[in-house]
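Sequence decides. Consider this:

===
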Amino acid sequence: MSILTNPAYLEAVALVRQKVDFYVDHFGPTEDNLPAIQVPIAQELSYSISYWGLLDVVTLIGDRRKAESDALPLDFPVKDPDYPECKHRWLERQDDLISEATFHLIGHNYLMHKAAA
């Protein structure tokens, strides 16, 4: 079974996304209060997660939110006729980066830890 379809992995990803979305909504994409979600995530997963890995996920999600609202300057002007398509491609790529960062945060090691528990 692929890790990307493993139910335990998908549950962990959903938990991380839920906590990070809440964090970004309330604190923004900053590391000032990151332990406020790092500890609860680690406790709920019974697995230690990297501060820096979590910061990557928070930063990527924060950048995506800014781009959705046109607050993040992208590499092309808003008045450009290709802007909607370029923005859509950028957001898709950002989703890929968020998925990759989340995978690195929990990934295979989490599943090995879960299987050993």
About this structure: The chain has a mean pLDDT of 83. The helical segments are 7-27, 35-45, 51-68, 83-105, 107-116.
